[in-house]
User: What shape does this take?
Amino acid sequence: MGKFTNDYLNTILECFSVHGKTFQFSPINNGFINDTYLVLGDDGPKYILQRINHDVFKDIDGLMSNIHFALQGLQSDDYRSIELIPTLSGTQYHNNVQGYWRLMSFINDSTTYNTTTNQKIAFEAGRIIGRFHQLLQNADSTDYVDTIPDFHSLRLRKKQFKTALSTADEPKMKIAEKTIEFAERILVKLEVLDNAELSIRICHNDTKLNNILFSKELDEALCLIDLDTLMKGYFYYDFGDSVRTIVNTAPEDERELHKITFEKDLFNAFVDGLASNGPFLSKEELNTLPLGAVFMPFIHGLRALTDYLNNNIYYKVAYENQNLDRCLSLFDFTQKALDQVEYMQKVIDKKLA
Ligand code: GN1
Ligand code: MG
Assistant: This one.
């Protein structure tokens, strides 16, 4: 059942405008930050209940207001809308001693995938991410709060990594020696991205494949979920985070590194999906995408490595070395993406220019 009992969670639901008396709760355990429950009524899933991680998200009002603005912009016949269910007093979340709770509508007959080998899924993922960006491209960026400032800033992540290096236990440093060397090398290679002149967009910032909702029956992408990190950013963030989880058929903590692959067919299908929205990216943005696909697995790997060195203070871990395993896997894909930078640029120029 997880941390909270059914009875306790039912008392939380009583604070929201919902019909029905008692519900069953089934934890959804694939996130690393929030506590998430599927809320089941008599006739199946009804809502998604989440306790927002306040250690990570300090500005809950800013976060909820970002989501609120984005949901207003993400209105279109070809984009499924998610509803925030207000509390009985009309607020967007409920706060009690256990934290900050919010409730969202569940979209029937939908599903998510952690990985895929299916080109249709890769195409659909590209299509919906492009659509998300088109729908938000005229958003007023001053409406949006930087809820985690510098979330994908390499400068910040490098600084945090260096601090972790200076405080980590010797045995951990020894185990991760080669990995730390790899990190130092890639950090230098990615500096060029900092110099690109790019437009600021409202980004999702966590576009891994399992944050895309698909229709169960037809495998059509419906919308993006998990809007917590929705903030200003560059398109290559969302591009790179998708590539790392769509083009690689192994999960992000895969320990058998030979299973980690850069699947060209899936990459092409994903880019075709983006392109199916018509052109919306500038030449400068297109030029950053291949390195973006190196950048995103790298920055996640670096954050996991930093957290491993810090004794797992940020991510929820299922076992002691999970952060290191995630890092090794993410760095392995980083290298595989780096080997394909020229190839990616060719495909992008052909399909997206
Ligand atoms: C975290 O918990 P989840 O899966 O939504 C993290 C993302 C990472 C992801 C795992 C706020 O998100 O950046 O992509 O783990 N979110 C935050 O790779 O740190
Ligand atoms: Mg997330």
